[in-house]
Fold this protein.
Amino acid sequence: MVFLRKQGLALETAERFDLPPELFAGAPRLTLSGTRRALVENHRGLLEYGRERIEIGGRRMHLRLLGEGLELRAMDADCIVITGTITAVELEQGGRNK
Amino acid sequence: MIRMTDRFRGFTRIEAVGTFPTGLLNRCAQAKIVFWDAEPADAYTLRLTIRTRDLRRVQELGRICRCSVKVLFAGGTPSALARLRRRAVMAIGLVACLGLLMWSSLYIWDMEVIGEETVSEAEILAALDKAGVRIGSFWPDFTSDSIRSLVLAEMPELRWMTVNVRGSRAEVIVRERIQKPEIVDENAPTDVVAEKTGIITEMRVLWGQPIAVQGQTVLGGETLVSGMTTNGFAPAQAEHAMAEVWARTWYELTAVSPLSGEQKIEGEREKNRWALKIGGRRINFYAGSGILGANCDKIKKEYQLAVPGLFVLPVSLLRESLTPYDTVTVSPDTGRLQAELETSLREQLIREIGPEGEILSPCYTAVEADGLLYVTLRAECRERIDMLRPLETGEWQTDLMTRSTND
């Protein structure tokens, strides 16, 4: 609880001082290039990998990409590049859908 | 490009099976192990490609993730070399082929001559052959300068040449010498004579003693202006006569053509036969000689074993397409045939009178006799008929003596 409070405080501080939250609070950043390519930075690893569904872990949240023919193009400790036809993006924070 | 270099350095396709195979991807990413073509087979199986050198580390990571890592196949240069190690004969053969190819590229197997206009390619190739440059020559023995000096000494018609060798192809570039125009010696004693028979219409004498006058009919070879001049006071002198003489001339030219001829009708069956040419030797893949029957067309095509711009090998495949044909007797359209002959006669006449002459009144007549068509052109023309004729030494000396005696 203390960590979550700290995390919420960090995000709030970042918002208040107009700082990038992905740098200040380590929040994952998702960049979509149309529906064919997605770049996820500050990830915490793959949780699920399938052709129609890819789930990526982030700090205090999960990021779920849904689509067809999804493919992991590149991956390192910081970034994941996914290609394919992306039809939806779901965010799950603290076990709740947002 | 990265994938290409990875493939060159060697890659391994693996299959990870476990309760959470995606964890292996996370571990690989954290360990900075490059992977590609990650493909989920089912919920518990994942296939991916890694560099061969990372295989051991991935197997260790698989053990940590409780995944069994199975190698599906390996590719790239290291595995190809490993396969070759098992096939020593093939490896030796490959090296031998490469060596032969490199050795062969030191010889000339094809020659091309560029820039020749009046001198034939065969003459240039013969001169090169005398200089030692021929098909099969070891080209490091020559330099362009040595070849140039030998060939230019052999062929004075050439002004410059160079030989560029690319791979096994020698490219011979030549420039021909521009011939000096004939220089008229304006001091040599000459007469102006009539080149053709005609009636003089115009006469401009620049130097010499006029013999003929305007309106006079002259025969071919008759003297128009004499080079022997005298002014009544001094003895006669032999000089260089010059004049421009125009005359009306008449021509009668006839052309003949048969009224029926044979036309070729190609047969449908085309037959190909093949031969292999190695250096100067030819191996035929067919029986019999190369002599064909009476009615048969032969088209040759040569396919040389070469990589354009890189190397040429002395091996080529020859294809000869043989097409038999029949002949039928046909009668061409007489009107069209007559028109063709008239055109031909007119062109011949233009060549006779030269570019300065003009055709005043052409008249064509056509007669058919004995299966032949005779077309006759009768034309009156206007053209220059003057021509210089040198005075022989004895001739003008005798003439001088005669004139001196008369004086």
Summary: DSSP finds nine helices and 23 strands in chain B. Chain B has a mean pLDDT of 86. The first helix of chain B runs from residue 2 to 9. Chain B touches chain A at residues 22-23, 25-26, 28-30, 32, 35-36, 38, 40, 43, 46 (CB under 8 Å).
